[in-house]
Design a protein that fits this description.
14 strands, globular, Glutathione S-transferase Yfyf (Class Pi), Chain A, domain 2, single chain, Rossmann fold, 11 helices
Length: about 350
Amino acid sequence: MFLRHLSLVNYKNFDSKTLEFDPVINCLVGDNGVGKTNILDAIYHLCFGKSYFNPVATQNIKHDTEFFVVEGEFEKEGKTEKIVCSFKKGTKKIIKRNGKPYEKFSEHIGFLPLVIISPSDRDLILEGSETRRKFMDGVISQSDKSYLLNLIKYNKVLVQRNSLLKYFVANRTFDTSTLSIYNEQLHGLGTEIHKKRKEFMAAFVPIFKEQYSHISEKEEQIMLSYESPLSEGPLLKLLEANVEKDRALQYTSVGVHKDDLDFTIAGHPIKKFGSQGQQKSFLIALKLAQFHFIKEQANTTPILLLDDIFDKLDENRVSHIVGLVKNDNFGQIFISDTHAERTENVVKTIHQSYKIFTL
């Protein structure tokens, strides 16, 4: 699978831009602020129906305009797939595949698998548990539609239960029978989500460790583990045991929406004890593991976006990554960089076809 053609209208800093891509390697080079990352984000937008860097649709419209259109032509399994994402202020976003709008955006997820490696991935280490859950959910959802649907349903029931808890306090009332209906629904959906997440981690962690060993120059004791309240017992019992706490807080304090991923090095949190180089290697290993996991599950080679990656790593780590990319496990790759000569020197060593776009 590869992206053949990209067209932008009023997208971020672009009035109008059209690009024809190489099926293997594409390099976007130029000074900071010229729009290299915005082009990568437009590709991400086509695959996921939203921006990787700014999910607020109105903020992806070019200043002083009212709409944006992102259009892409993909080659997948010998067929041309035309995807259009458009948004106009005051209306709903539209995603079309070959001229037909999706009724639900979730139907599009996983159709065009993609992995992005970006400096903003540091949020996975620095930010709270929600960021890490989104990463885990994003990887699983690209190859498991039922998981994504269960997640959407769970979040909807969670909002309803939280609204009910607020209603109880506002009206000085309490009804256990109504609450128990939501408890049962959360239990059924949450149990299935927890099961899928455990299965995912069992398959994902060995891939992650292998990728880290390729990138890092040292044998380091790194670990990625899944933390969930459901490891303590069935969700239904946890909800019932925490009912008084939930009444006081006016929201649901226990469930799979509180799950987290624990990143450690030598048994200690990598956020506090990992060097910058170790943290960078950890994140790149995480994303390359995501690539290989999705490729195996979806039976399609994802598009790989490398945003400003060479500026963030030392030469040894870059050479390791280039070594990984050299083999036939990778499909179409997009690289953004500020140094045209450095980028071309790197891609020449891969001995594959490539295009360089100077912005």
